[in-house]
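Weekly sync, protein design subgroup
Attendees: M.S., D.O., the rotation student, P.L. (late)

Item 1: inverse folding check
M.S. brought a backbone from last month's batch and wanted to see whether the design step gives back something sensible before we order anything. D.O. pointed out we never logged the input encoding, so this time it goes straight into the notes. Structure tokens as presented (331 positions):
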């Protein structure tokens, strides 16, 4: 049953998690956690998202807490290390937080930085980790992307380049340019009305999928099956989730029939402290399972009262939007 708003927030906590490094322009990650009959769920759309977009995230949190995960086909999920747009000299210390990682995702195309800095950062990561992918978050033009991908692959291979440009049409052009680098679509799937459009247009070899914006684990499994029909594998990634949201990402990845690439679910290390003490990655893989937040940590990490009110009000508006929609998993 779909919960009433009172049921939804009866055990809700709003948290403010300090981060070790600035990521996505923020240094504190706020999240609302809910508890239902199946466990905990997370509602943490980025603050700039409007209510329509944010309501998908609430649906994902409600699915986790009221329905629980779909059946798992594996017990552990390989995950990548994440390297923000830091100076190359800071890379070795950062990678200490990802022991055993065999894949790293490196942020590139950061505003105010040069291609030389991207190349230096990627090459430094290559000294420690065999598989490297880059994420430009749509920051390059077509010409810049082609130049950059050629420069970055001069000294080694790339597993893929994630969202080198912003638009679907640009991704198609970069992919057609023959740089030899696979193109992965992230924003073009996550924030699109039609997540398959970029694939039909020929703009992606790989699809990055995330549980919260797609509205849940079951939605990820369903979209992945559609993408498989186009021969496009998925990489399940996090949206800077707490350990609770991450467990839903891991459960979605665990439910997929094939998983050829490491998933982007290893971002918990970016928090100074997470909501639960979960096991570290073993041989670059995280184990799949429910997460129970530590009550002491929930208290320590509680957001200030004004932020708690803001999140509860946002959840109320999003809950109302969901109430007016057809929700097939909740009939
Ligand atoms: Mg991305």
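Designed sequence read out in the meeting:
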């Amino acid at each position: 049953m779909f919960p009433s708003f009172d049921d939804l927030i009866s055990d809700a906590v709003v948290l403010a998690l300090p981060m070790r490094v600035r990521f996505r322009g923020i240094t504190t990650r706020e999240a609302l956690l809910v508890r239902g009959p199946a466990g905990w769920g997370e509602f943490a759309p980025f603050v700039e998202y409007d209510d329509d977009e944010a309501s998908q995230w609430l649906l994902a949190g409600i699915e986790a807490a009221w329905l629980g995960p779909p059946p798992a086909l594996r017990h552990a999920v390989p995950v990548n290390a994440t390297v923000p747009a830091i100076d190359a000299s800071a890379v070795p210390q950062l990678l200490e937080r990802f022991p055993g990682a065999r894949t790293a995702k490196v942020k590139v195309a950061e505003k105010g930085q040069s291609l030389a800095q991207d190349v230096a950062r990627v090459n430094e990561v290559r000294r420690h980790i065999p598989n490297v992918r880059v994420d430009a978050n749509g920051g390059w033009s077509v010409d810049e992307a082609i130049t950059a991908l050629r420069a970055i692959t001069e000294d080694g291979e790339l597993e893929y380049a994630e969202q080198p440009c912003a638009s679907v049409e640009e991704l198609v052009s970069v992919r057609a340019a023959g740089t030899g680098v696979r193109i992965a679509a992230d924003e073009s799937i996550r924030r699109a009305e039609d997540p398959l459009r970029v694939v039909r247009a020929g703009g992606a070899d790989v699809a990055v999928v995330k549980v919260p914006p797609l509205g849940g684990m079951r939605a990820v499994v369903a979209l992945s099956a559609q993408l498989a029909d186009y021969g496009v594998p998925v990489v399940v990634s996090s949206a800077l989730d707490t350990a609770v949201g991450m467990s839903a990402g891991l459960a979605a990845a665990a439910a997929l029939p094939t998983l050829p690439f490491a998933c982007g679910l290893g971002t918990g290390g970016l928090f100074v402290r997470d909501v639960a003490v979960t096991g570290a990655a073993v041989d670059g893989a995280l184990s799949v399972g429910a997460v129970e937040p530590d009550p002491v940590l929930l208290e320590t990490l509680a957001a200030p009262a004004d932020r708690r009110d803001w999140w509860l009000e946002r959840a109320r508006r999003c809950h109302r939007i969901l109430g007016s929609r057809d929700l097939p998993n909740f009939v």
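Discussion: The longest strand covers residues 13-23. The chain has a mean pLDDT of 95.
Action: P.L. to compare against the previous round before Friday.
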